[in-house]
Amino acid sequence: MPSMTLDHLVYATPDLDATAAELERLLGVRAAVGGRHPGLGTRNQLIGLGGRSYLEIIGPDPDQDPPIGPRPFGIDELTAAALVSWAVAVDGIDAVVARARTLGYDPGDPQDMSRRTPAGDLLSWRLTPPQHIGHAGIVPFLIDWGSTRHPTESGLPLVELVSLRIGHPDPEAARKDLTAVGVTTIPTAKPHPDTSAARATPTAEPCRDVAAARFGLALDTRPRLTAVLSGRCGHVMLS
After folding, report:
1. Which distant-in-sequence residues (6+ apart) come within 8 Å of 107 by Cβ?
2. Within 10 Å of residue 116's Cβ, how many Cβ atoms?
3. 216-219 and 160-168 strand pairing
């Protein structure tokens, strides 16, 4: 089976600068400018998570004309920042998509994407369409960087990814589709600590109970991702 690993978490926001400033206050590191996504009406900033993994903070780009269609990741409907999706990096994206389809999950047809870094370097990659992701974002989309330079190779500011928790009302149904895209090592976790009173407005907040957010797939009232990051100023939970 083609190799794969966590590539990035997607933290979408209606106000990129404000969200990046809030994360800087909570984590103690300033996100690096990523670039613009021409035609999509978005831009991003990045924080490294160690290795070839990173946090993408993505929001509207006021310097672009409004896109023809909706911005990705439901950005146009957001009223606050939210951890909306994640991506796994693969080698040979077409083979991974074909395999997933034989297992009953369709990630969508890979698309060609590109953007320029602040230094003017062109980054090119292929990914399955984020709007095609299953279970409201808890099944990751696939990304294949090919021979292009990975964003983490540009010296991103670093924080630690302590945990990534996947919640779903039917964990076994979610596990089936996660397995289809090659995510096979997520253990079963305890129900989310605030399952009975899920927040209506996902946000970043200080996290004092790291043990309550162990890595795994858990029963929850709705599909959602929860990540705990550790920076210079302590632990922060994103959901």
Report:
1. 96, 97, 100, 101, 128, 132, 133, 141, 142, 181
2. 12
3. parallel
Express each pLDDT in 51-103 by its tens digit: 999 999 999 999 999 899 999 999 999 999 999 999 999 999 999 999 999 99
Q: What are phi and psi of 68, to 5 degrees?
A: -65, -45
Which tokens sit at 4? Answer: 């794969």
- Structure-token match 């990705």, residue found: 72
Specify the pTM.
Answer: 0.88
Number of H helices, E strands in the chain: 3, 13
- What distance lies between CA 26 and its chain's CA centroid? 19
How many Å separate Cα 69 from the centre of its chain?
Answer: 21
List of domains in the chain: 4-154 (3.10.180.10), 160-238 (no CATH)
- Tell me if 92 sits within 8 A of 146, measured CB to CB: no
Q: From the CA atom positions of the chain, what is the Rg in Å? A: 17
The answer to whether the beta carbons of residues 175 and 139 sit under 8 Å apart is no
Q: What are phi and psi of 55, to 5 degrees?
A: -100, 125
H or E, element range at 125:
strand 122-127
Structure tokens belonging to residue 106: 């369709």
User: In 3-state terms, what secondary structure has residue 34?
Assistant: strand
| Cβ burial 20-33 (10 Å sphere, 16+ → b, else e) | bebbbebbebebbe
**Confidence grade of residue 191 (pLDDT, cut at 50, 70, 90):** low
Looking at residue 21, its amino acid is A
**Residue 46 CB contacts under 8 Å (≥ 6 apart), including other chains:** 31, 32, 34, 54, 55, 56, 57, 151, 156
